[in-house]
Amino acid sequence: MRDLYRRLGVTPDSDNEALGRALEACEHRTLRRDAEAALSVAEHRREYDALHATLGDIGRLRARLGLTHGAHWRDSLADDFSCPADLAGSHHEALMRRLSRAALAHDRWRRWRAPALGLGLFLLGLALGAAACHWLLG
User: Fold this and answer.
1) pTM to 2 decimals?
2) Which of 26, 27, 52, 48 is nearest to 37 (CA)?
3) Which of 9, 54, 114, 128 has its CA 20 to 30 A from that of 91?
4) Does this UniProt record's set of keywords contain Transmembrane helix (predicted)?
């Protein structure tokens, strides 16, 4: 579906007068015919506005998720409600950094747990031996 408001250069809250001027200035016959059919009748415009709002929400959601159409969709009807990817507000990158740090810490722990356990047992044995010697000799 086309974003008739964007293609006509008006906002969805434009009054009928501004919309009429935009329709008169429109040089694309098919676009003008579609816009007149969808926006000139009050009931049709309410239905179009509801659908327009839903498609706008979907476009913003896709942008928030970092989803955009491929290059072959640019400037086509499918791209009218797309927004540029909004990666600034995305938590994906931060989550990936945290997961990477956790994986590195886990790998480090697995690599050092056997030597650390061996060293710990050795030191425990040494301490027990020293205590036994102190108790036997003391």
Assistant:
1) 0.57
2) 48
3) 54
4) yes
